[in-house]
Amino acid sequence: MDEQDINIKSLISPINDETVPFGFENKVLEKIKREVALRESRKETIQNLLIVVLAAALFSGALLLINYYYFNISISFSFNVLDITESIKGVTELFKSKESLIWIGIGANIAILLLCERIISERLNKKVTD
What is residue 51's predicted lDDT score, i.e. its pLDDT? Predict the structure, then answer.
């Protein structure tokens, strides 16, 4: 080998073949952070859904108990294939009663308030992140 080959070899030899490309570590860490955030978001969404289902079940149970004990409305449906028209008539009569309309109004107001709260919180979160 001549002197030029020795110089080229000395320049190339410190370069390790096992090194990663420039910015590889940052890209991998960003992907890991995004995946962690995505998993946390999914976990939070599932927890929120479970809480909503539990709250809806408790709220519905409370409304049924209040209707039965306070308003003396007996809610018993018979879904017999032969008596479908009678069952439909019973359900429509239940929803036409004054007490049921009050509860439907309360439920609609709660749904509207929850929707407004969700929209406002999303906009506030968007402003904070921007």
Answer: 94
